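[Meeting: bench + compute handoff]

Bench side (C.D.) handed over the final construct sequence. Compute side (W.E.) agreed to return the predicted structure before the next meeting so the bench team could plan truncations. Sequence as handed over:
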Amino acid sequence: MPNDPVKSRNSDALSAKADNDGALPQAKTSTSEDVAAFVAKARALSPHAPGAKSRLIFALDATMSRQPTWDMACTLQADMFREAAALGSLDIRLVYYRGYNECRATGWISDSSKLATLMSKIDCRGGDTQIGRVLSDARREAVESGVRAVVFVGDAMEEKVDALCAKAGELGMLKVPVFLFQEGHDAAAEQAFREIARLTGGAWCRFDPGAAAQLRELLRAAAAYAAGGREALLKLAKTASGAAQLIGQMK
């Protein structure tokens, strides 16, 4: 088996909220007091403030059915950095889940080659979806370090949709849109993904299996938003269909 690329060290250090081997903690239900506290703290660290760091969480389903798209994403993620570079800079935090109860995250990465190297060392494994843990991680990072957007690429949803929607609503309160890019036509996944997008002020788009060009355009559009906000996405939408798809859904 390949070495796990997300050990805690130097610039690739994992979040302080993750355990020592990089696993994210189990998602928990928030009380109203918890929600009020993190919203207040997050407003002080708003990624939309002038001069704020542009940060994007790039989350991927790495269960066995995702191997073809994972390989595509390994190649296409560089396009996200290139799009962002034209607008400034972008830090990306890679989050993925796979196997039995395994959900991991890297630290913030500003080098596309480093991110590509990390992704190339990860193999897909069978297991259930863990979208709730992805959303919980996004919420923590939004409060602790500021996050402008979340990208999620997957094909299935096997969790309680109401629980996911509650977490999505919290991200919406923090003004962190989630862009969900669905491969395939799973009806339950589409319903959940559309609702998460609506609650966060993000967008849902489908891409065909193996359609690298479609996924590339969607990732470029998300990166443009993360690096330059709505204005950058509107500008890109004049020439790119992926950006037009996203801006057409966003609140």
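W.E. noted at the follow-up: Confidence is low (pLDDT under 50) at residues 7-20. C.D. will use this when planning the next construct.
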